[in-house]
Amino acid sequence: MTTHPSKRQDPQPERSVIEWLLDSDPSIRWQVMRDLTVAPDPEVAAERARVATEGWGARLLARQEANGHWGGNPDNPEWTCFLALMWLRDLGLDPSGTEARRAAGLVRDNVTWHWWDNKPFFEGEVEPCINGRVVALGAYFGEEAQSAGLVDRLLGEQMSDGGWNCEQENGSRRGSFHTTICVLEGLLEYERATGSSPAVTAARDRWQEFLLERHLLHRLSTGEVIDPAWTQLSFPTGYHYDVLRALEYLRRAGVTPDERMTEAIDLVRQKRGPDGRWRLENPHPDQLDLGMDEAEGQPSRWITLRALRVLDWWSAQS
Fold first, then answer.
1. The whole model's pTM is what?
2. Is the N or C terminus of the chain more exposed, i.e. has fewer CB atoms within 10 Å?
3. What's the rounded Cα separation, in Å, for the pair 121 and 35?
4. How much of the chain exceeds pLDDT 90, in percent?
5. Residue among 7, 12, 33, 6 at smallest CA distance from 276
């Protein structure tokens, strides 16, 4: 791999930034300890266990009803359930813990997609942007067996350019970055739960190359940025694509950094404030509100955590 001038060693975050990140909810603390401070595994596990009993994770778990739902829109209760499980995964709730097994079990045994023949929740519905995330949830919460058929469906729906698109049934012939990142994350989580699969790995590799050829955000034909919103940093991401989400996926997938990622990495670097923190730029109102102290334009612990570990991954392999 050719070393690019931009692939310099990133400075370690200032102690004050790490302390700021640690002065937070257990869901952030345990990930900082694991990814940024390299704390001993028993300490990380102990902190992670607190997600179920303290803070945002505990409050969200307490809102689950006996029928597996989290309330919300009475005409679409499974959507609120979907968002709640996505949050619990983002928070890093230990899937082997009693609380996670109970929450996932209630969903498995009670929740269906009422607009799609009342299919069980972990068997998914029709849109690949949703189904990719259902696969991720099933794999994360130990329900991957229920989602195996959904994986086969997604593999069969991959388009000629390597992507997926919820508008394919309406005539779209090109993969959507939004839909595809959701599917890729789901397939990666599934492989982590069940072991490497040649078919799944090949499907992921096809779009990864497509993505890298476009430096994560450009049209191949003109070189222009496809969507300026992709340069803004968000969390939670929902179904929305952005460069930080793409870089986090590539990091988790173990993709070796190369110079085609440089522009995206530099973009993330440039957004770091003089206080060493990153700000929330593009919140998505379609997500479940957990009452976090995160506001548009203000320093975000979630964005800062994610940006720092992406830069660490980049620098470690430069």
1. 0.93
2. N
3. 32
4. 83
5. 12
